């Protein structure tokens, strides 16, 4: 296992506790798109979430804004949970969504609000 994969696994487990089992994880690689999780672990969690320069809390704020703008609903489900793990309150998450109305429009913000309501209910 490469060092970047180890860092990615550690960051992923810290950001989304309980999603991946502890220890060496056997990642699915078969079937259509079988390499997606490995790419995410290496390139996003191993290389981006572990960088110096921004705190994880700040990275969550930036990530939420980008994902709202992209209307990336699947990723928003995970990143609302990650934002909480990184210390954002529900009120701060709502404020990110409110703020995004001015830059991404109401349709994107409304879609994000619906996803946030579902995810944040899962305390």
UniProtKB/TrEMBL annotation:
Record-linked SUPFAM superfamilies: AhpD-like
Superkingdom, taxonomy of origin: Bacteria
InterPro entries: 4CMD/NDH-1_regulator, AhpD-like, CMD-like
Family annotation (Pfam families): CMD (PF02627)
UniProt-recorded Gene Ontology molecular function terms: peroxiredoxin activity
Carboxymuconolactone decarboxylase-like domain sequence ranges: 45-118
Entry-linked PANTHER family: 4-CARBOXYMUCONOLACTONE DECARBOXYLASE FAMILY PROTEIN, CARBOXYMUCONOLACTONE DECARBOXYLASE-LIKE DOMAIN-CONTAINING PROTEIN
Protein name (Swiss-Prot/TrEMBL): 4-carboxymuconolactone decarboxylase
Source organism: Mycolicibacterium rutilum
